[in-house]
């Protein structure tokens, strides 16, 4: 209840002051939202968007795909503007909560160059700036196989954007620096320090292609289970003189560890044909998996209807090397070997433990109906196949196994 009050207050903080400024040409108010119902065919695990603490089961829920956002843009003068965006959605907390998604000042220093300072979206994906705006996207939700692999939505810092047209092609180059922080489902927080992000885009008629790269240092704080594992490994290393345990603890730990996310993307909106695809590689120097993720979506407009199909896949390229010895040397205490075996077993589960850790693939069919100006109705069905363990499903119970069928109906709007 408290979070709903906070959410309402955040929305009103944008709406109320600007209600008195609707006649001022310098201020522009806009917003977006999605009201959705989502369900699955199982009660053994829950289907959610990346980093949601809970999700959908056989009982229909509104929490997975519903959100609401309000944005205020204020033009200070011809070259300086200020933007703020508030977003209400269900994320790492098991209820709807509010967040300040954007809050930046933008200076246009020339016809081609603009600089922003404040909180902005991380340009990691093809649809980074409008990933939460359902109306702006063909599919009901971005594929989790891709969008779970980069949990930072915003960066607090600065960016510079250059954009210029040569003939019929428009080129955009964006470079951002700063830091980020995200609450993780279950209680921990993930800090991104010394973040840099490069985003290169080329648009030619109906075709858009992009390349993106995000680099930084990761620190996972507040994870009791991870701290317990690291303490146990270091205790074994000291108590039993097993240096491999200390090395394993260092390899697993997420403290000032390098990480990168490299992505390619393309969209085509030609006549009635719509195609969208992304491919990405994640790499880290910790227990967080190195992964490959991709998806391809295709659709065809028939009047106001747009049926579409997509296939998405997430695979693990590499995980922490479990160098724990199988047994202790002769003459060691009897408890040594069982202790090593127990810790080695825990380490082996890290590959499929935690947010965004897992392998799965999804086939999706859906249809979008633009039945009224600024309104779109979507119906979507997903066939989710976890390749190992529970994939990206959350709160899986003993005995769960895929595949899982997911259904959703959503009404997207903008104003």
Identify the strand order in the major beta sheet.
1-2-3-4-5-6-7-8-9-10-11-12-13-14-15-16
What share of the residues lie within helices? Answer: 10-25%
SS-based class: mainly beta
Write the element-wise H/E pattern from the N-terminal end onward.
HEEEEEHEEEEHHEEEEHEEE
Radius of gyration: 23 Å
Q: Tell me the major beta sheet.
A: 16 strands, antiparallel, barrel
Q: What proportion of the residues form beta strands (DSSP E)?
A: over 45%
Instruction: Write down the overall mean pLDDT.
Output: 93
* N- to C-terminal distance: 27 Å
- The number of strands is 16
Number of helices: 5
Question: Which spans of ≥5 residues are poorly predicted at pLDDT below 50?
Answer: 1-23
Shape by Cα distribution: globular
In short:
The protein contains five helices and 16 strands. The protein is mainly β.
Chart the SSEs and their pairings:
Blueprint: H1 2-19, E1 27-40, E2 67-75, E3 80-90, E4 96-108, E5 113-121, H2 144-147, E6 154-166, E7 169-183, E8 189-204, E9 207-221, H3 224-239, H4 243-252, E10 255-270, E11 273-284, E12 290-300, E13 305-318, H5 336-349, E14 360-372, E15 375-386, E16 404-414
Antiparallel strand pairs: 1-2, 1-16, 2-3, 3-4, 4-5, 5-6, 6-7, 7-8, 8-9, 9-10, 10-11, 11-12, 12-13, 13-14, 14-15, 15-16
């Amino acid at each position: 209840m408290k979070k709903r009050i906070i959410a309402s207050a955040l929305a009103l903080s944008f709406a109320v002051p600007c209600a008195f400024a609707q006649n001022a040409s310098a201020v522009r108010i806009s917003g977006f939202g999605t009201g959705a119902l989502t369900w699955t065919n199982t009660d053994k695990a829950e289907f959610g968007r990346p980093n949601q603490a809970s999700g959908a089961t056989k009982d229909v829920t509104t929490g997975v795909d519903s959100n609401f956002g309000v944005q205020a843009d204020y033009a200070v003068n011809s070259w300086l503007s200020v933007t703020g965006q508030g977003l209400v959605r269900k994320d790492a907390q098991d209820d709807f909560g509010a967040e300040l998604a954007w809050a930046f000042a933008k200076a246009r220093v020339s016809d081609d160059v603009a600089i922003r300072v404040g909180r902005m979206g991380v340009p990691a994906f093809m649809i980074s700036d409008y990933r939460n705006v359902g109306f702006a996207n063909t599919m009901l939700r971005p594929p989790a196989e891709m969008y779970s692999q980069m949990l930072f939505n915003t960066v607090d810092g600065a960016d510079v954007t250059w954009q210029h047209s040569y003939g019929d092609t428009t080129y955009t180059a964006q470079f951002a620096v700063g830091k980020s922080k995200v609450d993780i489902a279950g209680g921990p927080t993930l800090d991104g320090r010394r973040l840099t992000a490069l985003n290169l885009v080329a648009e030619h008629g109906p075709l858009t292609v992009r390349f993106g790269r995000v680099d930084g240092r990761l620190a996972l704080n507040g994870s009791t289970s991870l701290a317990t594992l690291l303490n146990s490994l270091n205790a074994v290393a000291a108590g039993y003189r097993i240096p491999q345990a200390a090395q394993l603890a260092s390899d697993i730990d997420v403290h000032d560890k390098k990480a990168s996310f490299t992505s390619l993307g393309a969209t085509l909106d030609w006549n009635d044909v719509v195609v969208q695809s992304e491919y990405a590689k994640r790499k880290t120097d910790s227990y967080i998996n190195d992964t490959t993720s991709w998806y391809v979506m295709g659709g065809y407009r028939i009047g106001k209807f747009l049926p579409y199909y997509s296939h998405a896949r997430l695979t693990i390229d590499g995980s922490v090397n479990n160098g724990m010895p199988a047994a202790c040397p002769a003459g060691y205490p009897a408890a040594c070997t069982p202790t090593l075996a127990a810790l080695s077993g825990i380490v082996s589960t890290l590959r499929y433990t935690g947010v965004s850790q897992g392998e799965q693939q999804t086939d999706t069919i859906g249809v979008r109906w633009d039945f009224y100006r600024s309104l779109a109705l979507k119906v979507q069905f997903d066939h989710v196949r976890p390749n190992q363990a529970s994939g990206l499903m959350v709160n899986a119970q003993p005995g769960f196994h895929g595949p899982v069928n997911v259904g959703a109906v959503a009404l997207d709007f903008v104003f």
